[in-house]
Design a protein that fits this description.
The complex is a heterodimer of chains A (about 290) and B (about 325). Chain A has about 290 residues and is mostly helical. Chain A has eleven helices and two strands. Chain A starts with a helix and ends in a 10-residue tail after the last helix. The relative contact order of chain A is 0.22. Chain B is mostly helical and about 325 residues long. Chain B has one domain: ABC transporter involved in vitamin B12 uptake, BtuC. Chain B contains 14 helices and four strands. A two-stranded antiparallel ribbon of chain B has the order 1-4. Chain B has a two-stranded antiparallel ribbon with strand order 2-3. The longest helix of chain B is centred in the C-terminal third of the chain and has 27 residues. Classes of the chains: A mainly alpha (about 290), B mainly alpha (about 325). Chains A and B meet through helix 4, helix 9 and helix 11 of A and helix 6, helix 11 and helix 13 of B.
Chain lengths: ~290, ~325
Amino acid sequence: MQALYAQLLVGLINGSFYALLSLGLAVIFGMLNIINFAHGALYMMGAFCAYFLLNAANIGYWPALIIAPIAVGIFGMILERTMLQWLSGLDHLYGLLLTFGLALIIQGVFQNFFGSSGLPYSIPDELKGGMNLGFMYLPIYRGWVVVFSLVVCLLTWFLIERTRLGANLRAATENPTLVRAFGINVPRMITLTYGLGVGLAALAGVLSAPINQVRPLMGADLIIVVFAVVVIGGMGSIMGSIVTGFALGVIEGLTKYFYPEASNTVVFVLMVLVLLVKPSGLTGRAN
Amino acid sequence: MTVTTDDTLPATPRAVRDEMIAFGLMTALLLIVPLTGVYPFFVMQALCFALLACAFNLLIGYGGLLSFGHAMFLGTAGYVTAHALKVWGLTPELGILVGTAAAAGLGVVTGLIAIRRQGIYFAMITLALSQLLYFIYLQTPFTHGEDGIQGIPQGYLFGIFNLTNPTVLYYVILAGFLIGFLLIFRTINSPFGEVLKSIRENEQRAISLGYKTDHYKLLAFILSGTLAGFAGALKVFVAQNASLTDVHWSMSGEIVLMTLVGGLGTVFGPVVGAFVIIAMQQYLAGFGQWVTVIQGVIFVVCVLTFRRGVIGEIAHYFRRSL
């Protein structure tokens, strides 16, 4: 039973990363009509940012949790201003190809300097150790990741679905020209949205640094799983992305316990099943 | 959501005469390669990738479907052919046939799944499917995991052509490439190809005209996958191994890159693109990971400033279709 709970926890943690990343992808897709292939690379940059802050400037985990997403978010906004914005009138596919190229560049540069092996990043003192819940031993840091990710996801949902800013954003997604006519600076909003999505990816990177080690290719395979998550959930709803992300993490964790051989394929198999039953995704609208 | 216009993917009227001349030129150049002292292994490898890119281009250039998982056909056919030759001891022609058939079967299955969504989702689904296959091949015993299948016997094609002889092998590979290329050329210029193009331009309208667009897309996907598999089966004789690299997502990315560099939706673009990228990898092999970075830069530059690709730009300049 202990092992089952442990795998469930691992599943929840992976689910938090899926949720944070697919949430960012959905927000970006809504505004920019681009599938951000560089998302995994930017997630990795978040982790590296935390690593640099600690080793070069002796800035610890807590400040990194804020600085890294902002720094990577700014980097993302520069990418959007200098490159992605020029693709606005073109076929969606070019956005995918461009960001794929960016991912290759970013990952390649980091691989050149840091090789492919993992760099250690230790858990902050405040979150070290664990507690005995009676039925299982819970490492505090892992519990923290799940709770904190959930809070960030819900805050993002609140920002987009319940605030004035979010309302403008959703309106601009539906009809950018009309929203511009109301005097709202849509291009700036697009840039900020990209920054937000990228920042969420970087945040996930910082959170995962103490668990998964910091590696140049840590986001490369992850992003493909997240794509499958996005296909399963559909990008139509923010809450849908969050729920699907966590749910798939848990299912993956359960698979690791009951049938470990299928643990790295289960998400893809589920994607196939969903496509056969409900092609538009679980929360997606029919096109 | 179809914003595809003639600015994004070239849709100029086709002049078959220009293409026939270009085809003759290309064939002549390729025929004399063994006389020039160019390293034949390099050209053979490039030919396999050229056919692969042409097959990929059939989908994206004419059907508007971006497959980000074409490596799965390359790898599957490679593994099956390699296994057939080495373990079952089949003759080369049967090995190629079995490998290509496996890719065709895979095309049917994955096609039925992938065509259920359009545009950007199609790309993500094909990528996810190929990743699924990657993990399967990583775990099944017959692929020998990380080591791959090595030391594959080349044998005698039809019992006459000795494939261990580089020159003979070269002409066999060239023949395979030309057969595949002409098949694609024929497809593009057939009524089927015209319907495919109409789906690319405006799927809703094609549906309203009574075409069952899903059938066309599925057929194009199967054809493309089968030909990509054929390229993979041929590649086994050149590389004499079948490994996980051929199924990896980075390989799918390279196929996309070759076609993009040469020119999406051009007949000869993928061939040029394949030679450019393979040559680049050959000459920059010493730079390690920087090759990946350079490939990324080429992607970015192509998308931002050079969307027509080499052949597309030439064709546009001369107002011809190539």
